[in-house]
Amino acid sequence: MEAKVVTFLHVLFSCLLCLHAKPLQTYIVQLHPHPHGFTPTSSAFPSKFHWHLSFLEQSVSADDSSTRLLYSYTSAMEGFAAQLSDSELDLLKKLPGVVAVRPDTRLQLHTTYSYKFMGLTPAREDAWYQSGFGHGTIIGVLDTGVWPESPSFNDRGMPPVPGKWKGICQQGQDFDSSNCNRKLIGARFFTKGHTVADSHGHGTHTSSTAGGASVPKASVLGNGGGVARGMAPGAHIAVYKVCWTNGCYSSDILAAMDTAIRDGVDVLSLSIGGFPLPLFADSIAIGSFRAVEHGISVVCAAGNSGPLQYSVANEAPWIATIGASTLDREFPAIVQLGNGEFLSGESMFPGNEFPSTTKEFELVYAPAGGKKGSEFCFAGSLPKVKIQGKMVVCDRGVNGRAEKGQVVKQSGGAAMILANTAINMEEDSVDVHVLPATLVGFTESLRLKAYINSTRNPRARIVFGGTVIGKSRAPAVAQFSARGPSFTNPSVLKPDVIAPGVNIIAAWPQNLDSRRVNFTVMSGTSMACPHVSGIAALIRSAHPKWSPAAVKSAMLTTADVTDHSGNPIMDGDKPAGVFAMGAGHVNPQRAIYPGLIYDIKPEDYVTHLCTLGYTRSEIFTITHRNASCSELLKMNKGFSLNYPSISVIFRQGTRRKMMRRKLTNVGRPNSIYSVELKAPEGVKVRVKPTKLHFKQRNQVLSYRLWFISRKRMTREKLSFAEGHLTWINSQNHLTRIRSPISVTWKRK
C-alpha cells in the first residue's frame, strides 16, 4: 500500500468533534516494520492498512477506530497518523511495536507548488536569483493560444522587451495587439480565419507554467492556495497558436517554428506530439533541427502513451524530450461506503465550501435501462429516472473525465465516483468537477463494485479533505508518461528527463469556465514540458553563450535519481528504469552550474544520422544539408554522438563496442574529476582515462569507453540492462556529472 492509502483530514474530524467529550489531536505513530519477527501482511491481517488500524482498535473504541485513521504509511516510514485524546495516546504508546509517537505539525498550503517542490526560492544562493529569474530570455510556446487577461501575464516589474525580438502581436478575432506587454511580448496564429485567443485553455496553462508572473492568493476554488509562479518568472513569453479544435497540423507547426526562429526566441516549448515517426517524416524533428542550428533550445513533451514501451515521441537527439512525474501534493476526497469501509480518492471539487456535499447518496453503476456506454457515462447513455439524486459510478476512459461529470449532472445525478480501470491502475489525475466527485484507483474501484454487488441498497458519501503536502513519496514516474526505448533511434536514450506533470495548477482562461476561475489543474507530459522549458530559460539567462546541447547536458547530468525521501524514484511498485525516467528528475538548482557539459555541434547530428543508415535524401530532408555519409564516416572513424546519456546496442554476432565522449569544463580552472562506474549486468566496461584534469575553464578533454558483452544471446528478441557513469569533482565531491547507461541486446 502507498503512503496515501487512507486520508481523512481535518474536515472530517471537525464533523466528529461533537461526538467526543475531549478534544482530539493528530499524532504520527511510527511502528517497527517487523516487531518480534512478525510479518504484518501475514494471514493475521489482509493488508498493512488493517495492521495499522489494529493499533487504534486497541486504544480507542472499536466503532470509532476507522474514522480516526488519517494516513497509513508504508514507504517513507512504517506507521500511521491518527486523531487521539490524551488518554488514548497514553494507551497507544504502551502497545508492543510502537516505536515513537509525535504530534503533527501544521501544514502550509501552496499553488503551482512545483517550483517549491523542485527547490526554487528567491534566496540569494538560489537558481532563480543567480539566473536573474530568467530575465532577458524569450520562451516561445507552440500550443492552443493564450488568454492575455490572466494575471499570470501581468508585466509589473518586467524589464523592457529585448532588442533582439523581431516578433509581433498579431491582430485576430477576440485578440487585440494591445493585449501584449513586456511579459507577453508576442502572439501569432497559424490557421487562416481563426483567433489568437485561447478557446481551449491548454496554451494558457503551459505558457504560465514556463514563464508566468507571480500571482499571490492563487487557488482553484480554494484548493492548492498560494503564490502562482512559472519556472522562469522573469522571462518573456511569445505564443504561437498552432492547435485548434480539430488538432495540430504539421504545416502550422512548421510555419510557427519558422517564424519563431526569425522572431528571436531562445527556447521553444512544444507540448505537442504523436506517435514515433522516422525523423525525416517528423515535422517537429525537422523544424527543431533548424531551431537548434540557430541556437534555440527545443523542449518537447514525450507523450502520454505510457506505460507502453517504445511509446516515446519527439525522439530526435537535438530535442529535449520530457516525461512526467508526480508531486507530493494531494487533494483527498474519501469515499465512505454504507458498510463503513473507506476508499481513497482525490478531487479538486471545493467540497469544504459546501457541507451538504458530504450527504450520503444511493450508489448506481451502469443502471438498468441505460444505453450502450452507460458504464462510461457517455452523453445520452444515463436514464434520468434511474440516477436522479444518486451518486453515479463512471468508469474512466473513452470520453473525458470532466465530461463524465457534466453528463451525470445533466442527467440528474447528485454526485459521481470516477473509477480507474486496469488501463489506468492507480494513476490519480484530478479534475475541477461541476458536481461533488472523486477519482478512485483501480484497486479501490474493484472494492467499490464488489460492495455495490453485495447489497440491494448500496450507499456512499464523499468526504473532501482540501490540500495536503508532503505525505506521499515523490517524485515518481507518472503512469501515463511515454516510455522508451526510442522506436526510430534506440542509439539515443529517450525520454531525456522527467519533470512535474501530474495535477499541475496554472493559469486558465476565465471565460472558459462558468465559475470564472483564473487557475485550474491539468495533468500530462504537456505540463511537464513547460517546466523544463522554463528551467532551460534560467540556464540560458545565466549562460547566454551556451549551445542548446550544453543547456540540455546541464539538465541531464545533474538530474536526481532519488526522491525526496532519499529512496530510488519509483515507477509504480518498482524502481524507475532509464526508459521511464531517462537521466532522472530535473534539478534546476544543480543544473545552473553543472561543472562539466557534453557539447554537440549541429554537424555532429548529421554524422550521427549517417551512422544510423539514413540516406542522403533523408538527411537533407531533416537538416537541409547535402551530406556525403561515406566521406563523413571516413573523416570520423569510430564516431559516436557526444550525448550526455549512453546507449549501447549489441546485435547478434557483436560482443564489443567502443565509444568516445568529450567533456567541457564550465566550472573552475584546475578541477580534477574521477570516474565512478556501475556497469550494466552482463557487460564489462572499461573507461580510459579514469581521471580528467581541467587546467582551464572551457577546456575540452575526452575519454573512451569499451563495452564487452558477457551475455549470450537468448531466444528473446530483445533484452536490456542499465548502469551509470559519473565524473566526481575530487576537490569538493559535490559536483557530479552523471550519465545513465542503457544496453540492448537484439537478435536481429
UniProtKB/TrEMBL annotation:
What's any one GO cellular component for it?
Answer: apoplast
- Every copy of the Subtilisin-like protease fibronectin type-III domain together lies at 641-743
Principal place of residence = secreted
Query: Residue limits of the PA domain?
Result: 361-446
State the protein's name: Subtilisin-like protease SBT1.2
Task: Give the species this sequence originates from.
Answer: Linum tenue
Q: Where is the Peptidase S8/S53 domain?
A: 134-562
What family does this belong to? Belongs to the peptidase S8 family.
Q: What does this protein do?
A: Required for arbuscular mycorrhiza (AM) development during AM symbiosis with AM fungi (e.g. Glomeromycota intraradices).
| Cross-referenced PANTHER family | PROPROTEIN CONVERTASE SUBTILISIN/KEXIN (PTHR10795)
Give start-end of the signal peptide. 1-21
Q: Which UniProt keywords apply?
A: Apoplast, Glycoprotein, Hydrolase, Protease, Secreted, Serine protease, Signal
Q: Which GO terms describe its biological process?
A: proteolysis; response to symbiotic bacterium; response to symbiotic fungus; system development
Task: Provide the active-site residues from the annotation.
Answer: D143 (charge relay system), H202 (charge relay system), S526 (charge relay system)
* A Gene Ontology molecular function term of the record: serine-type endopeptidase activity
The highest taxon in the source lineage is: Eukaryota
Q: Where in the cell is it found?
A: Secreted, Extracellular space, Apoplast
Record-annotated Inhibitor I9 domain positions: 26-110
